[in-house]
Design goal:
TIM Barrel; 3-stranded mixed beta sheet; 243 residues
Length: 243
């Protein structure tokens, strides 16, 4: 089956996300934009995924858990997982490898955990956007051990990306798929980095506000509607565009 997607959404748990970017609202906006499948990927955290999945079920949207991890090289990696349990395990692993720096909401923004009724149930006091002592090279195996997939995020951007921070892409890194921003020029990217030629890619919004999700036009092919099916399709590049 052909499924449209947006696998990179933030909520009010990300300090750079709008305070009104409740996970339920982000799910609804993804559905309204035309997504068949979506994921909540807050910075180094997954605790709003429970509310997100509940909303996805209500909207008949295939929901995945996840996070946007910041590696020791300050590279953002999109982490997609098959369950709340796997996401919680990854969050614990990342948290143990981050510096314990207190968030300053007036500078970085609030970090709210909400329930499926948009009620704030807690505030994360520790700053979530700090890097973890996990190398980017370790993320493919780490995510595979949890049944998930690691995808270098917005590789075309000039900061916090695999190309901007490491300056190269190699298939031996273990990433079967990469992510581009909606502003990317695939042809220019391959011209600058020939090793990317033929690599499957996804295009996500990286939305931090409800209004940031554009009409969704990119698709993949999946043989089912379970999170595991979607992750397998991403790993195999099924129906994905290629650089």
């Amino acid at each position: 089956m052909i499924l449209s997607y947006d696998f990179h959404l933030h909520s009010c748990l990300s300090p750079c996300g709008d305070d009104d970017a409740y996970p339920t609202i982000m799910a609804g906006m993804a559905k309204a934009a035309g997504a068949d499948a979506s994921a909540l990927t807050d910075h180094n955290a997954s605790r709003n995924c429970r509310a997100f999945l509940a909303a996805c079920e209500a909207y008949e949207l295939i929901g995945l858990t996840g996070m946007e991890m910041t590696t020791s090289e300050e590279v953002h990696v999109l982490c997609l997982l098959p369950s709340l349990e796997a996401a919680a395990e990854l969050e614990k692993y990342v948290r143990e490898r981050q510096m314990d720096i207190r968030n300053k909401p007036d500078i970085f923004g609030w970090q709210f955990v909400t329930d499926e009724n948009d009620v704030v149930i807690s505030e994360e006091k520790r700053l979530l956007i700090t890097a973890a002592s996990i190398s980017v090279s370790a993320t493919p195996d780490l995510l595979a051990s949890l049944g998930g997939i690691a995808i270098p995020a917005h590789i075309d951007r000039s900061s916090f990306s695999l190309l901007s921070n490491l300056g190269a892409f190699d298939r031996d890194m273990g990433f079967p798929t990469v992510e581009l921003s909606t502003a990317a020029d695939p042809k220019a990217l391959v011209k600058a980095y020939p090793a990317l030629s033929g690599v499957p890619f996804i295009v996500d919004s990286d939305a931090h506000r409800p209004g940031d999700i554009p009409d969704i036009t990119h698709t993949l092919e999946s043989d089912g509607t379970k999170p595991e099916d979607i992750i397998r399709a991403l790993r195999e590049g099924s129906g994905l565009e290629r650089l």
